[in-house]
Amino acid sequence: MSDDPETLRQIEELSQDDRPLLVLDVDDVLLEFVRPFPKFLEKRGFHLALDSFRLFGNVTEKAGGRTLEPQEVTVLVDDFFGEQAHWQAVTEGAADALAHFGDRAEIILLTMMPHRHRDARRLHLEALGMTYPLLTTEMAKGPAIRRLRGDRGRPVAFVDDQPRNLASALEHVPDAHLIHLMADNSLRKMLPEPPGGAHVVEDWREATPIIARVLGI
Ligand SMILES: [Mg+2]
């Protein structure tokens, strides 16, 4: 699997860091997505059925009930990310957890979204006090995490709500410590199992001591 060249360029801009590495997803790990996105859709006249964990095929017109085509859903997600500062609050417990880690780990945010939204997301996160480096990727996350770690073998922990992203990390960084955290735990039953060995946690409160232990901080 190839690397996203823009993500690699963003990684090159970071300073070399020897601290243990903590990589965090953003949507539904650091910022809420699954709670505000349906509200955004309602305002636009659409409805999201959450009876399976996917957006495509699950968005309908409130008037008439037509199911939107995938490209129409993509446009709505894109609009949502453009307006994210109005919609996306910090996930419960995330700010306390990050404050707890302080500067004992290098904390990097790795979000799968079109690169053109990077500045909007960065500004929004900074306004919320989250001044950590933010990387965007339009491809699998594993290669970016391997590159972020560098070649000095420092410990890595990765938190994501999507099992496929955890699997990608495991494929490229086999000794990474994986944490499966979801903003809405009721959706777990709709997802495939996270990779074996991943720590499945209910919330940030439960994740915090696990991250501290695996990173040795
Ligand atoms: Mg996510």
What attributes does this structure have?
about 220 residues; alpha/beta; Rossmann fold; 2 domains; six-stranded parallel beta sheet; 9 helices; 8 strands; binds magnesium ion
Give an account of the 3D structure.
With about 220 residues, this protein is α/β, with parallel strands linked by helices. The protein has two domains: about 5-30 and about 90-215, Rossmann fold (3-Layer(aba) Sandwich); about 35-85, no CATH class. The protein has nine helices and eight strands. The chain has helices at about 5-10, 35-45, 70-80, 85, 95-100, 120-125, 140-150, 165-170, 205-215; strands at about 20-25, 45-50, 60, 105-110, 135, 155-160, 175-180, 200. α5 packs parallel to α9 and α7 packs across α8. It is globular, with a radius of gyration of 17 Å. The mean pLDDT is about 95. Bound molecules: magnesium ion. Magnesium ion binds near residues 25, 27, 28, 29 and 162.
**What oligomeric state do these chains adopt?**
single chain
Largest sheet: 6 strands, parallel
Q: Briefly note the structural class of the backbone.
A: alpha/beta
What percent of the residues sit in helical stretches (DSSP H or I)?
Answer: 25-40%
The CATH homologous superfamily of the largest domain is termed HAD superfamily/HAD-like
What would you report as the Rg, rounded to the nearest angstrom? 17 Å
Strand-and-helix sequence, N→C? HEHEEHHHEHEHEHEEH
CATH architecture name of the largest domain = 3-Layer(aba) Sandwich
Strand order of the largest sheet: 5-4-1-6-7-8
Name of the CATH first level of the largest domain: Alpha Beta
CATH topology descriptor of the largest domain:
Rossmann fold
